[in-house]
Write a structure and sequence with these properties.
Strand order of the largest sheet: 1-2
Radius of gyration: 20 Å
Strand content: under 5%
Order of helices and strands: HHHHHHHHHHHEHHHEH
Distance between the termini: 29 Å
Helix content: 55-70%
Structural class: mainly alpha
Number of strands: 2
């Protein structure tokens, strides 16, 4: 079933209209919550406030990545320039993402989702797994092991040793004739934004008298962010069908406030809706979901009642 058989062209046009005000609101509230977590720990430093900050900051790393994702689709702001500039400097770079390279990779995912040519297939192909296997994966994420592996992989990509990807497939790039200077130039080109934005964040915390709080940003990137990325990835496509039809290869998941704070920021839980109309801005995805449901289009689609249900499905439950 095609979405044009369910919605009129006028409805689709209205759904796909971005809003600069809503775009800025999403970016501003994400950074406000990041600032609030630093302020919380500065105000009442303790194990418990640090743990709360690690959880919330991990969710904000994911929120920034999702905002970058929306900019990759040119759906966060009305103009391409604003999507590119804000998407790079306020969303992608602070959490070690790369908007242009991600855009190219991600659009191939949309084109080939549900097929063997999907560049993200390996992220979900192993599922379902046993509960013990899933527990081990999540434990590696929470302990920082997965995060350290991700950092190593990003360094190899940014220095030009392996091809860019957001999946686990490593493709080595030819190195014939490359000098150390070439490696340094490649690294400078790919890492300058990450370095500058993180230096600015550290500098702001240092000027505020709490430079050690930057460790929460790094720690959440290595731990809780890894957990949330895995859960979100599983929810979107794991344990669905190998078929190019989004109704058969993509899942949407209900998200309560805890999920929106952690694994499902910026309405990313409406993933089927996103694959049906990938340039619909985040704030219209719930509306699109309701319209599809009212017209009976979701009766046989993959919809989960929550992320716990998804994890049970992914672990053979």
């Amino acid at each position: 079933m095609k979405v044009t058989e369910i919605l009129s062209n006028e409805e689709i046009k209205l759904l796909k209209s971005p809003s600069d005000a809503r775009g800025w609101l999403a970016v501003a509230t994400t950074w406000a919550l990041i600032a609030a977590m630093f302020a919380l720990v500065a105000w009442r430093p303790s194990t418990w406030t640090a743990l709360v900050a690690l959880v919330v900051l991990g969710g904000r790393h994911l929120a920034l990545a999702i905002l970058m994702h929306d900019c990759a689709h040119y759906s966060l702001f009305r103009t391409r320039a604003l999507n590119d500039v804000v998407g790079r400097w306020l969303c992608a770079y602070p959490t070690w993402q790369d908007l242009p390279r991600y855009r190219e990779h991600h659009l191939r995912h949309h084109k080939f989702a549900g097929s063997k040519d999907d560049p993200d297939l390996d992220l979900v192909a192993p599922f379902p797994v046993s509960r013990a296997s899933l527990a081990r994966k999540l434990a590696r994420d929470a302990s920082g092991v997965s995060g350290l592996k991700r950092v190593y992989g990003l360094l190899l990509m940014d220095l030009g040793f392996v091809k860019y990807t957001v999946s686990n497939v490593i493709t080595k790039l030819p190195q014939g004739g490359r000098t150390k200077l070439d490696v340094l130039k490649t690294g400078a080109r790919n890492l300058h934004g990450v370095a500058l934005t993180n230096a600015a964040l550290f500098g702001a915390l240092w000027l505020g008298g709490h430079p050690a709080l930057y460790l929460l940003w790094l720690g959440s990137y290595l731990t809780t962010f890894s957990v949330f990325v895995r859960v979100r990835s599983i929810a979107e496509h794991a344990c669905t069908e190998q078929d190019l039809d989004p109704f058969k290869n993509t899942r949407s998941t209900e998200a309560n406030w805890v999920a929106r704070l952690t694994v499902a920021p910026i309405r990313v839980n409406y993933h089927l809706e996103h694959h049906l109309l990938m340039t619909v801005p985040y704030f219209n995805l719930p509306r699109l979901h309701r319209m599809l449901a009212e017209r009976g289009a979701l009766k046989n689609a993959y919809n989960a009642g929550g992320y716990a249900e998804v994890l049970l499905t992914a672990s053979g439950g």
